[in-house]
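Record 1 of the preview.
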Amino acid sequence: MQLSRVSVSLLALCTVGLLSFSGHNYRKVRFNRLNSELNGTPRLMVDKTDYELSIFDDEGWYATYPVVFGEKTLGDKMWEGDRKTPEGEYKIISKRPHDKWGKIMLLDYPTPADWAKYKDRKTKGLIPKNKGIGNGIAIHGTWMRDDMAVDYFQNWTNGCVSLKRSEMDELYEMIPIGTKVTIRK
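->
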């Protein structure tokens, strides 16, 4: 009798454990069902708090993609190497394939507004004297076979915005150089 209770308990524990893996919710792209194609000039809104990149066009909201960033606090970029994603108004200045991340769209960081924030923070002593402002902020895919980082909200970049590789391929095809990008918390 005692052995059967242990067996039943072990079976129940294994079943619960296996079912917990099967219920994983993958983060998915959401599309506006009433707006089936991009119309007019696209713009991107990156919301760090919601871990989302949304596309808007002349008719309004078009789609939202799940993304991740750099440092987990989601604070504004202070200096090069802090792994924080900057906040502000940017534009895409180049697009190209990338060996590590599939595709990459480079932003015009640092802008004059970023330089002003940097100099103000440096004057206030918030930035160490030996730290520069940095550059090279982009929107790009994940490492090969590492899309789960996006599903699990794993902030892994050095300050960039990262999407799943296949979703970056979609975004790359529809978003032209010169597109305005707003990054906010």
